[in-house]
Write a structure and sequence with these properties.
Number of strands of chain A: 21
Radius of gyration of chain B: 26 Å
Helix content of chain A: 10-25%
Largest sheet of chain A: 6 strands, mixed
Number of helices of chain B: 10
Order of helices and strands of chain B: HEEEEEEEEHHHHHHHHH
Strand order of the largest sheet of chain A: 12-11-14-19-16-17
Shape of chain A: globular
Radius of gyration of chain A: 24 Å
Mean pLDDT of chain A: 87
Order of helices and strands of chain A: HHHEEEEEEEEEHEHHEEHEEEEEEEEHE
Distance between the termini of chain A: 70 Å
Helix content of chain B: 55-70%
Structural class of chain B: alpha+beta
Largest sheet of chain B: 4 strands, antiparallel
Distance between the termini of chain B: 68 Å
Strand content of chain A: 25-35%
Largest interface: A-B, 38 and 31 residues
Structural class of chain A: alpha+beta
Oligomer: heterodimer
Number of helices of chain A: 8
Low-confidence stretches of chain B: none
Chain lengths: ~375, ~400
């Protein structure tokens, strides 16, 4: 019978708890309706006070992901790289003029072991190029002589295997530029063909070296002099020209991490940090066109994809042409090491938050999702 | 003379001699902890992580999990993905989870009635701990109505069959020796089934408990301890017979029903089993023999009337307590412990009923293998086994 005596006390306590919950929910609703009266704040979705009290209610304005989110924020300073800065951080190396008048472009790349935070609070024992994942985004001009000084400070043999045109000796496979810890190798070849390429470690087992983080973007801009009939297009692609400066160019590497090494990915991302561009949307000036250099290096899953909300784009597969290989699409797929260039404009759109994500819902919900924060020029 | 060779010590010097090794043990621990002489074995391996989900509560606020950490170091759960989607969550209490501690994870996830969900808790090292919700059903809220419903179920599966079984008492009185032998052997058969069943169930539950409880050892040792304790209490004033033996049987069966109640209560709480009328009736039928078993050793005595409700309460009442407790604070290790203690108690009454049966036939030991005894024993086992099929899903 003592249980009967306890019952009212327990129901009483429960009623108090429930009352508290209702009150908190009410406060959240008030707070959210206050938010909805102002323009959507890109950071509103990350206000923990606005967490849904009712998991079944539709999220309010400014909470595009609702409760589907990682908890907390990644410490980019501790990682030593910031996904937002990475978007526009091209590594152009140092240049000198060769006796034959050509430009020699020299890059310095070091392999190192490093623990990185890939989602808030989750650390991954990565193998990196220049302390970052993805590695530095190398950028050169078609026809230049390239020299990449590669040093291995890691704990395993590594290499740099470039997707491009070069001799067998420079291929970065075992026996051709794959070096032991503590060694150095210099890769030398001409920058061709122009396009959106990649490099990655080709040490074996390849799967492990890939998904541990040893990959990066390698862009060769077209030389306008070599494409006289399409000089204007080539100029807009060539970094450093006024035509190119008008474009908002973004570097995106679709990657994923198998944190428990079971052959399946736990965290998906664009530029390593899950949900980075949900937490910090990418600011876009609507008056200027957008060009994305997109690369897929996701291991274990056969394909990845890119879907742009509320807009369509032109696509240049592998970036080796100056005319689009696909026009007016809102989704493209890429298998591992496939890459390409996306060009689109928000000029005719009203300002707002425009989502982008792969249309494999699973990848989206495990971190690979972001927002373009499209604004009027000068905002 | 050899007896005298042991030197006699004063209590003081004996105390000092105990202190010396104690001080050395303490010193050794301090030395190992401070100087870390095993440093060279440190190979940079990540800490061992273990997380056991002990309770799952589903309600309008989402999914709530009670988790117990068992890592070599305090654990941090960094993110939670439900059905391969990162989901926001709160942890109560917050912070790293010490070895052996429990926390609640509250995940406002819109789970779907009747469907399966998979929760993946990711630690800061990226290790995933998966917890499957096979069939999502709302956890019954803890209300007076629920308590009453559970008490009713407990009464039907616990009290009612024992009471009905005891009603056979007048009919069984005045039976001859063969009839008595049959009934006692029937009781032994039923008890033997319960012993095997409970031990198996306890061991199975023990494997789902957090490793630090060392489930298997806990089950065997607590069962043994309960057996030895009850034997020594029971034999305090000679061998228990008649009403005393009936009470010991009732106690053993009561502990069994308590464990069964815990399991049913937990099924209630987890929403994992719909407790249909069929299942409840199965339990009731299964337990009718318990009343007959309790009555058997009293047939030669004249038990007072109050002893019947008392025996019923002792044997059947714990089912109600078990249901309440199981639905409120279920954890596999505590249910395994309750079942193990019950198994020890059952073993004690098997020994006592067996020796009582032997004493009933002092002149003829071969009566142990007479058709009545063997038939009764196998009949008890068989009945329990057959009716268990009704309640095993």
């Amino acid at each position: 019978m003592e249980h009967d005596d306890n019952a009212p006390a327990n129901t009483g306590r429960r009623a108090v708890l429930l009352g508290g919950l209702v009150a908190a929910g009410g406060a959240a609703v008030v707070a959210r309706s206050a938010l909805s009266q102002t323009a959507p704040d890109p950071m509103a979705g990350h206000d923990m006070a606005a967490m849904q009290a009712d998991p079944y209610a539709a999220p309010m304005a400014g909470m595009a992901h609702g409760d589907m989110t990682t908890v907390g924020l990644v410490d980019h300073a501790r990682n030593g790289f910031d996904p937002t800065a990475m978007l526009t951080d091209w590594y152009t190396g140092t240049t000198s003029i060769l006796p034959d008048g050509r430009t020699l472009r020299t890059f310095q790349v070091d392999a190192k072991d490093k623990d990185i935070e890939i989602a808030p609070g989750i650390f991954f024992p990565a193998w990196t190029f220049n302390d970052r994942v993805p590695g530095p985004a190398l950028r050169a001009k078609e026809g230049e002589r390239l020299k990449i000084i590669f040093r291995n400070y890691g704990s395993h043999p590594h290499s740099m295997h470039f997707h491009g045109i070069h001799s067998a000796r420079m291929d970065g496979v075992p026996g051709a530029g794959l070096i032991n810890p503590g060694e150095e190798f210099i890769y030398e070849f001409d920058a061709k063909p122009f396009g959106c390429h990649l490099y990655h470690c080709h040490a074996l087992p390849l799967k492990r070296h890939m998904h541990k983080g040893m990959y990066g973007m390698f862009v060769i801009d077209p030389d306008p002099d070599k494409h006289p009939t399409q000089a204007a297009v080539a100029k807009s692609r060539l970094l450093g020209t006024p035509e190119n400066a008008n474009w908002q160019e973004l570097m995106m590497v679709m990657n994923a991490f198998d944190t428990n090494f079971d052959g399946g990915n736990e965290v998906y991302a664009c530029n390593t940090v899950g949900q980075a561009y949900m937490n910090t949307p990418i600011r876009i000036d609507k008056s200027r066109p957008v060009r994305i250099y997109l690369l897929n290096v996701t291991e274990f899953d056969p394909i990845n994809s890119f879907h742009l909300h509320a807009n369509f784009f032109n696509y240049f597969d592998t970036g080796t042409t100056l005319v689009p290989t696909l026009t007016n699409v809102d989704l493209i797929t890429q298998c591992q090491a496939q890459r390409g260039i996306l060009e689109f404009s928000f000029a005719d759109h009203e300002p707002g938050m425009y989502m982008f994500h792969p249309h494999q819902s699973e990848f989206t919900e495990l971190g690979w999702v972001g927002m373009f924060d499209v604004q009027e020029p000068g905002v | 003379m050899t007896d005298q060779s042991h030197p006699t010590r004063s209590p003081m010097s004996r105390f000092a001699l105990v202190l010396l090794p104690l001080a050395l043990i303490l010193g050794a621990f301090v030395w190992i902890a401070s100087l870390d002489p095993l440093r060279s074995f440190t190979n940079g391996a990540p800490p061992v992580e273990a997380l056991t989900i002990e309770r799952t509560v589903l309600d309008a606020g989402g999914i709530h999990l009670l988790a117990r950490a068992g890592g070599s170091e305090p654990m941090i759960i960094a993110q939670i993905a439900v059905d391969d989607a990162f989901w926001t969550f709160t942890q109560d209490p917050a912070g790293p989870i010490d070895r052996g501690d429990t926390v609640w994870f509250n995940i406002p996830y819109p789970w779907v009635q009747g469907e399966a969900h998979l929760v993946n808790l990711l630690s800061n090292s990226g290790t995933g701990f998966e917890h499957e919700i096979a069939v999502a059903l709302a956890t019954p809220a803890f209300t007076a109505y629920q308590l009453r419903t559970q008490a009713l179920v407990g009464a039907i599966v616990g009290l009612l069959p024992v009471a009905l079984g005891l009603m056979f008492f007048p009919a069984m009185q005045g039976l001859g020796r063969t009839g008595m032998n049959f009934l006692l052997a029937l009781t032994l058969g039923l008890l033997a089934f319960l012993l095997v069943d409970m031990t198996g169930e306890a061991l199975e539950l023990a494997t789902t408990a957090a490793a630090l409880f060392q489930g298997t050892a806990m089950v065997w040792l607590s069962g043994l301890a309960s057996f030895l304790l009850l034997m020594s209490i029971g034999r305090w004033r000679g061998r228990p017979i008649g009403m005393a033996l009936a009470f010991y049987i009732a106690l053993g069966i009561g502990l069994h029903n308590f464990g069964e109640g815990l399991a049913i209560g937990a099924a209630f709480a987890a929403g994992s089993a719909g407790l249909g009328t069929f299942l409840v009736l199965g339990f009731a039928l299964h337990n009718v023999t318990e009343g007959i078993g309790i009555a058997a050793p009293m047939l030669k005595s004249k038990p007072p009337l109050w002893s019947f409700p008392a025996l019923t309460l002792l044997a059947g009442g714990p089912a109600i307590l078990g249901l309440w407790l199981g639905s409120l604070a279920y954890a596999p290790q505590w249910t395994a412990l309750a079942l193990a203690i019950g198994a020890g108690a059952i073993l004690q009454v098997i020994v006592e009923v067996g020796s009582y049966l032997l004493r009933q036939n002092p002149d003829n030991q071969s009566a142990m293998f007479s058709p009545a005894v063997i038939g009764g024993f196998l009949g008890g086992l068989g009945f329990m086994y057959a009716t268990a099929a009704l309640i095993t899903i």
